[in-house]
Amino acid sequence: MAALLGSYAFAASKTPSRRTRPLPQVGEFIRIVDPLTENIVVRLTDPRFQSHLPAPVNRFLSSQERFLLFSSSKPGRLAPFLVDLRTGRSRQLAAPKNLVPKSLCLDERERSLYLIDGATLKEIALSSLKERTVADNVDAFALWGQPPQIYIVRQNCLVRLSDGKTLAEGVNMPQIPVRPGGGGCFFGRGQVNDEQEFWYVPFSAGRQETPRMLAKGKIWNPFWNPNGRSLLFLRGVDVNGVSTTEIHEAVPDATPDGNADQRVSRTSQFAAFAPNGDGSVFVGASRSKAQPAIDLLLRSIPRELTLCEHRAASAQSASPVFSPDSRRVYFQSDREGNPALYAVNVELLVEPTL
Q: Is residue 341 in some structural domain?
């Protein structure tokens, strides 16, 4: 792997000798050659319309049927769409009045889509497109298990919907991912300017658990490690007077009082990142003005490999994520005007995961 990375990085660093050109179209997909690395990048959506990926912590890529959920302004206002990743064809799933595009999330069986329309949490059956209202006055939600246990944020309180129990107060983060295994839930507090606090509340039957802080400071982009042992996130740091970012992790079971997170790796100014299916590789969007790229970073070897340019106006909005099997990377960019979705194949560089 190290030898492959070395040769790939060398090839990616060379100046392209030919101009980029479009490649054959499949359905709505268009293949292009990246001008920086000459890798094949597939544009999944038409840049004449706005297209948005859901929150990266949400389940929106099918591991069974190979489809992707996204939001598009094609109908005139944002609506949820499903695109078949084999044929390139997409279809509209609902017509909400005020869709929160980051809210799209599949249940574990991949049979239902959950989303927030204004402040209403709705469920849409993918087979029949039948809708039902799940809850009102919802700012954020998370799903776990099957049938799904639903947790919502309402009036800055984290609430378990099944029994109405308040698990935490003072919640002010739009994503509240449940820990793999269902043992607890992450949430954010105390957001002021670029600084905030990450907290964790365990789930226990029959008693009220006290939330505990995991980390604080200039931190963002939280992800549970796929094994559920730690919370991964980006932390802004100064190295010799230069502002950069590092991937850190906090272990809920070993940090009862917070502020004990550990560095996993330095990055080339990642503004957004995500782990692959087993947490061995990270994909990040660099905020570098000289090279706004999508990069791979091996956890075992602190070395980065450039996949392609993202050229998004905001690197954080690129939101790169792996497919469930770690064979592809998906990201968002407004490089052609409106936000559009893109994919790049990494199966020769990253070992597939189940």
A: yes
Read off the pLDDT of residues 272-324 as tens digits, 9 standing for 90 and up: 999 999 999 999 999 998 889 999 999 988 789 999 999 999 999 999 999 99
DSSP annotation string for 82-150: EEETTT--EEE----SSB-GGG-EE-TTS-EEEEEETTEEEEEETTT--EEEEESS-SEEEEETTTTEE
Residue written as token pair 């995961």: 353
Range of the domain at 247: 2-345
3-state secondary structure 144-208: ECCCCEEEEEECCEEEECCCCEEEEECCCCCCCCECCCCCEEEEEEEEECCEEEEEEEECCCCCC
Query: 3-state DSSP call for residue 287?
Result: coil
Question: What residues are paired with 263 via a beta bridge?
Answer: 248
Q: What is the pLDDT of residue 13?
A: 40
| Domain-located, residue 353 | no
pTM for this one?
0.90
Looking at the 3D structure of the chain, how many domains does it have?
A: 1
User: Which residues are registered as beta bridge partners of 131?
Assistant: 124
Q: Is residue 108 part of a domain?
A: yes
156 in a structural domain? yes
Measured distance CA(178)–CA(75) in Å, rounded = 33
Phi, psi of 318 (to 5 degrees): -65, -35
Residue 317: which CATH number?
2.130.10.10
Amino acid at 90: S
